[in-house]
Design brief:
Mediates magnesium influx to the cytosol. This is Magnesium-transporting ATPase, P-type 1. The chain crosses the membrane at residues 67-85, 91-107, 250-268, 280-305, 720-743, 749-769, 781-800, 812-830. Pfam families: Cation_ATPase (PF13246), Cation_ATPase_C (PF00689), Cation_ATPase_N (PF00690), E1-E2_ATPase (PF00122). Residues 15-87 form the Cation-transporting P-type ATPase N-terminal domain. The chain is α/β, with parallel strands linked by helices and 868 residues long. The chain folds into four domains: 9-57 and 122-233, Distorted Sandwich (Calcium-transporting ATPase, cytoplasmic transduction domain A), CATH 2.70.150.10; 66-116 and 238-309 and 636-837, Calcium-transporting ATPase, transmembrane domain (Up-down Bundle), CATH 1.20.1110; 315-342 and 501-628, Rossmann fold (3-Layer(aba) Sandwich); 346-497, Calcium-transporting ATPase, cytoplasmic domain N (3-Layer(aba) Sandwich), CATH 3.40.1110. It contains 30 helices and 23 strands. The protein has an eight-stranded mixed sheet, sandwiched between helices. Strands 10, 11, 12, 13, 14, 15, 16 and 17 form an eight-stranded mixed sheet that branches. Helix 9 (242-271) runs antiparallel to helix 10 (276-290), helix 10 (276-290) packs parallel to helix 25 (679-688) and helix 24 packs parallel to helix 26 (714-742). The longest helix has 42 residues, at 630-671. Bound molecules: adenosine-5'-triphosphate and magnesium ion. Adenosine-5'-triphosphate binds at residues 335-337, 377, 379-380, 401, 403, 406, 408, 423-425, 465, 467, 522-524, 594, 596.
């Protein structure tokens, strides 16, 4: 990646990885002692928060965006043109209605955005920096150029930094580079023209520390960072969630229909020698009626309402657009420790190779756990719990724990000589041992191997987590590397207890009852995995990491089809399992809290973490649970489905009544000697019928609508459109026939009557088609019913009001009112009848056999872009 020339801070910090460190510190205005709190505060005020701002238009930009759709722009231009040639009043009315519609959308979206900002502030991702000479935790947003950042495993790299100090610092850069193996960082200089991956002394915003420790100085923040640059360059990337992709396809469908109608109606009107400007405005007004221009506001409002409802259950939604995918989730893949188990690990036994309790094993374990400098973890904490005052052993060096090797080695001076003490998953410890200590003797490992494995299996099957412990004396050693983990002597086993959560089984059953299957994926061994799985009601033989590794990508989806438990997997395999499930057409949620869960959290449709998780997991997650409680997940899923169901109601009105109205008007232009409605009436109708949508997010859903995972399905929308659109059109044309050919009403009465007719069909679509039940048996929310009635009242009153004159409406005679009322009853009956044959909400879950369009975007996850 090459740096673009420019000016300002970007330019000064360009190629900050090249050249001597002191120069870089000067450019950043940093010192090895960190910034003062005052200076940092000044910088923050001057340059703004360290944020990339992926989306979220606010203020003026949001307001403007309500008017920037091409069709609205053309309409405004045409109106201004009509005003120029004389029709001032008419034009002004049109502009007023367009402004009011835009204002309504803006107000809705704005309020929704504000509410969500407040919620999201409840989950904070921290950075540790040196301020005024002391280490403090601040929000990642508050880091400024020049800050000295302290980094440990599990930390998020808050901005682009230059390394000042590194101890076996390993960083996962997959977010930027896609490479799944961690990169080693050091203070070594990099050439100015080095590739991104070759800049060993640079750290990038958005990446995270996998192991080791270090310090680094912030060189670029926010949008000046490489991550910010990449993100803004791909700002127009395709919608990321399944639901968003569905909406996009629905939008395209409408645009296509609209284009045909627009041209058709305009041409027809011209052929019938109607005034050009009027015909143009009429066609444009119809086109506006067909574009679901309230959709962004509806979606924003219902998502924010959903997020607020979830917050009441202590579930914080960080990325709003996943709410619907949350409701669509078919598989929940979960980590073991702390989610299915209580996460409070206790050390229950330190055993010799012969299976006897052994103090020496306990002592060695404490040296290993107590002197390690890697990240804090429950196993080491359990070993140290209640430990005696410090052992005389002295730390020399360490080969820190990593998730692939699954071992932790500590080199210590114990009784005068350097000893390498290694503990880890038994399987991986045995790999590096060739002898074992039994009694006072050291014997070849093979002599005891079977006995050890039997004991290990028995302990694991009882639900213990078992580690192996091995030693090797290393005279004169001053460093420890993973290569030293060889020719070791097994000295014993450590058994830990971490009981399954008592509520897990019930929570899993509840999820299963609502169509979500839970699958377990863990780094722990197969026996322990099997035990915990059985305890929480998940059956099945575990599939092992080694089996996964041997399976090529193309065969993986079939291989994992029936597996419920995955054991002995490393972080990369967690992600592979997840991706394979998505390829199968599943909508996959991933629940995890460790550094090793970050890749899978990124790759999931719905990444879920907990507030106590490491920072990187919290950052990667789209949803954060404030309590480690599986039951709230089921609640959250219900809310996601309700949000989805309500959004679908809007789409349904749009595709039946609104769409039907447009077709009816197009047909009417051919049948009538005059325009069926004036352009301003079409726009007003459109504006007024938006009013009930402002309360749609409060609506109730029927229990059966929440019972299964839901996804948007363009095919069923098309069927729906055909059936219910036709009914609506038939009703409109029946009204037309009665008004024009039977009653022979004058033009303005006709328009007033049709205006009411159209509103009524929209209300029917909203109230009748919101449920598969008979409409009287499904109660709408008070707010929705209220705004619906308000809309009818306004529409019926309009022709009798002083506004009737400028709007071109006239009062209706009683006979016409009676006809419309009768038609309405027939219309409702027809819709109810159609519901028996073709339910408006088919409640199906679309799950393709791996080739289904909803998942073609599997590779384009947020954050998953290449180096460009
Ligand atoms: N601090 C440690 N020292 C030595 N070995 C460890 C340590 N932590 C974990 N291990 C070993 O590595 C294995 C994998 O643990 P890891 O935390 O990577 O898996 P995980 O998938 O997060 O597990 P879980 O599902 O239980 O959360 C453990 O079962 C254990 O054998
Ligand atoms: Mg874990």
């Amino acid at each position: 990646m090459t740096e673009r020339a420019g000016s300002g801070p970007r330019d000064r910090a360009a190629a900050f990885w090249a050249g001597p460190l002191p120069d870089a510190l000067t450019v950043a205005g940093a010192s090895p002692e960190g910034l003062s709190g005052q200076r940092a505060a000044d910088l923050l005020r001057e340059h703004g928060p360290n944020r990339v701002e992926v989306s979220g238009k606010r203020g003026w930009r949001l307001l403007l965006s309500q008017f920037t759709s091409p069709i609205i722009l053309i309409l405004i231009a045409a109106t201004v043109l009509s005003m120029a040639v004389g029709d001032l009043i008419d034009g002004a009315i049109i502009l007023a209605i367009v402004a009011a519609s835009g204002g309504l959308g803006f107000w809705q979206e704005h309020a929704a955005g504000r509410a969500v900002d407040a919620l999201q502030a409840r989950v904070r991702v921290d950075a540790d920096v040196i301020r005024d000479g002391r280490e403090v935790s601040i929000s990642v947003d508050e880091t400024v150029v020049g800050d000295l950042v302290v980094l440990r495993a599990g930390d998020v790299v808050p901005a682009d930094c230059r390394v000042v100090e590194a101890h076996r610092l390993q960083v996962d850069q997959a977010v930027l580079t896609g490479e799944s193996f961690p990169a080693t960082k050091s203070t070594d200089a990099s050439p100015a023209d080095a590739e991104l991956t070759a800049r060993v002394n640079a750290l990038w915003m958005g990446t995270h520390v996998v192991s080791g420790t270090g310090r680094a100085v912030v060189m670029r923040t926010g949008r000046n960072s490489t991550f910010g640059e990449v993100t803004s360059r791909v700002a127009t990337r395709p919608a990321s969630t399944g639901f968003q992709r569905g909406l996009t396809r629905f939008g395209l469908l409408l645009v296509r229909i609209m284009a045909v109608l627009l041209v058709g109606i305009f041409a027809a009107n011209l052929l019938m020698h109607r005034p050009i400007i009027d015909s143009l405005l009429f066609s444009l007004a119809l086109a506006v009626g067909l574009t679901p221009q309230m959709l962004p506001a509806i979606v924003a409002v219902s998502l924010s309402a959903g997020a607020r409802a979830m917050a009441a259950h202590r579930v914080i939604v960080k990325r709003l657009d996943v709410i619907e995918d949350f409701g669509a989730m078919t598989v929940l893949l979960t980590d073991k420790t702390g989610t299915l188990t209580t996460g409070t690990v206790t050390l229950t036994a330190c055993l010799s190779v012969d299976g006897e309790p052994d103090d020496e094993v306990a002592r060695l374990a404490r040296i290993n756990a107590g002197l390690q400098h890697g990240f804090p973890n429950p196993m080491d904490a359990a070993i140290m719990a209640g430990a005696q005052p410090a052992d005389p052993a002295v730390r020399i060096a360490e080969a820190p724990y990593d998730f692939t090797r699954q071992r932790l080695s500590l080199l210590a001076r114990d009784g005068g000589r350097p000893v390498l003490i290694t503990k880890g998953a038994l399987r991986t410890v045995l790999d590096v041992c060739d002898t074992a200590r039994t009694g006072d003797r050291t014997v070849p490992l093979d002599e005891v191997r079977d006995r050890v494995l039997q004991r290990f299996t028995a302990l694991s099957a009882e639900g213990h987590r078992v580690l192996g412990l091995a030693v090797r004396t290393m005279p004169d050693a001053v460093v420890a590397s993973t290569a030293d983990e060889r020719e070791m002597t097994l000295v014993g086993l450590l058994a830990f207890h971490d009981p399954p959560r008592s509520d897990a089984a019930a929570a899993i059953r509840r999820l299963a009852n609502t169509g979500v299957t839970v699958r377990l994926v863990t780094g722990d061994n197969r026996h322990a995995a099997r035990h915990v799985a059985a305890a929480v009601g998940l059956a099945g033989e575990p599939l092992i990491g080694a089996d996964l590794a041997a399976c090529p990508d193309q065969q993986l989806p079939d291989r994992i089809a029936t597996a419920t438990v995955f054991a002995e997997v490393d972080p990369v395999q967690k992600e592979r399992v997840l991706t394979a499930l998505r390829t199968r057409g599943e909508v996959v949620g991933f629940l995890g809290d460790g550094i090793n869960d970050a890749p899978a959290l990124h790759a999931a449709d719905v990444g879920i973490s907990v507030d106590t998780a490491v920072d990187v997991a919290k950052q990667a997650a789209a949803i954060v649970l404030l309590d480690k409680d599986l039951d709230v997940l089921a609640d959250g899923i219900q809310l996601g489905r309700r949000t989805f169901t309500n959004t679908l109601k809007y789409i349904r009105v749009n595709t039946s009544a609104s769409f039907g109205n447009v077709v009816s008007m197009s047909v009417a232009t051919l049948l009538l000697p005059f325009l069926p409605l004036l352009p301003r009436q079409v726009l007003l109708l459109n504006f007024l019928s938006d009013i009930p949508y402002t309360t749609l997010s409060t609506d109730h859903a029927d229990p059966e609508q929440l019972h299964h995972p839901r996804t948007i399905n363009v095919r069923t929308i098309r069927t729906f459109m055909l059936v219910y659109g036709s009914i609506s059109i038939a009703a409109d044309l029946a009204a037309l026939a009665a008004l024009h050919w039977w009653w022979h009403v004058p033009t303005d009465v006709f328009r007033a009557a049709w205006f009411i007719q159209f509103t009524v069909t929209e209300i029917i679509a909203l109230m009748v088609l919101r449920t598969n039940r008979t409409f009287l048996r499904s109660r709408p929310s008070m707010a929705l019913a209220g705004t619906g009635l308000l809309l009818i009242a306004i529409t019926v009153a309009l022709p009798f009001s002083p506004l009737a004159e400028p709007l071109g409406l006239a009062p209706l005679p009683g006979t016409v009112v009676a006809t419309l009322a009768a038609l309405t009853i027939v219309n409702v009956a027809a819709n109810e009848f159609a519901k028996r044959i073709s339910p408006p909400d088919p409640l199906t879950t679309e799950r393709g056999g791996g080739h289904d369009p909803p998942h073609v975007g599997a590779g384009t996850r947020p954050g998953g872009f290449g180096t460009g």
